Amino acid sequence: MPRFFIEREQVSDGAVTVDGETARHLLRALRVRLGEELDFCDGLSSYRAKVRSLAKDSLICTILTQEPIREEPRTRVILYQCLPKGDKLEWIIQKTVELGVAGIVPVLSQHSIAKEGAEPARKLARLNAVARAAAEQSRRGMVPLVADFLTLRRAADAAKRLDSAFVLYERENHLDIKTYLEFNKSASIGIFVGAEGGFTPQEAELLAAAGVVPVTLGGRILRTETAAVAALAMLLFHKGEYR
Predict the structure, then answer these.
(1) In the prediction, which pLDDT does 120 show?
(2) Is the CATH code 3.30.450.40 the one for domain 3-68?
(3) Using 50, 70 and 90 to split pLDDT, how confident is the model at 117?
(4) Contact criterion met (CB below 8 Å) for 165 and 211
(5) Domain residue limits, the chain
(6) Which DSSP helix (H) or strand (E) runs through 14?
(7) What DSSP line would sit under 67-98, residue for residue?
(8) 3 state SS of 159
(9) Cβ within 8 Å of residue 165, ≥6 positions away
(10) What is the distance, to the nearest Å, from the Cα of residue 192 to the centroid of all Cα atoms in its chain?
């Protein structure tokens, strides 16, 4: 059973009250029954609870155990992902949320190709739904936010609020990621990943001027979706988050 996210006000008097879309999913898709045990999370605590009453669009569960969140990485990582082709962004969000990213910022760069069709607000709602589903499936302690789309310049400015940030930019004379991480003691880190085609020299200069360090992942050129996942996994592994 995956974890289901709730608001803190849904917890009261030793019970969890579930309504809205989560309740409809539990009742209609998963067909939960009286006496079943479910796992809930409000961002601070996780709850094991037993279903004690069912209604058409809601249910009440008695809390059996309550524990503090232990699943979240101590290092806060924000992914600044330049928009790739097609539906790759959804895949990147899903996998990086599973790994432990704290937030994703879609970025418009010179090589980005925005998908035609849905309005920006609808796109963002869909991307956050993907993040929520991935967080529930992987039993995260929180749902990482997919933020509003930013230009590269605005993303670089936003990253200044973090302790440090690096960009994947494949040049032989740049620092390799292993060496970079060995000297990085930051508690919050940004990762910039380009779209297909990477970053232009002018964009690389813009990021460097904002204090974003260029690093390489080695001699092989990775697809944008592979690079995002690989860099995040390397960072969290180096920080000891998989112990």
Answers:
(1) 66
(2) no
(3) very low
(4) yes
(5) 3-68, 76-238
(6) none
(7) EE---S-SSEEEEEEE--STTHHHHHHHHHHH
(8) helix
(9) 80, 159, 189, 190, 191, 192, 210, 211, 212, 213
(10) 14
């669009």: which residue's tokens? 57
Structure tokens at 21: 């879309």
List pLDDT tens digits, range 194-239: 999 889 999 999 999 999 999 999 888 899 999 999 999 999 999 9
* Helix or strand (DSSP H, E) at 228: helix 224-238
Instruction: Give tens-digit pLDDT for 62-75.
Output: 999 999 998 899 99
Residue with the bigger pLDDT between 36 and 116: it is 36
pLDDT at 115 over 70: no
CATH number of 76-238: 3.40.1280.10
What secondary structure does DSSP assign to 130-145, as a single string? Answer: HHHHHHHHTT-SS--E
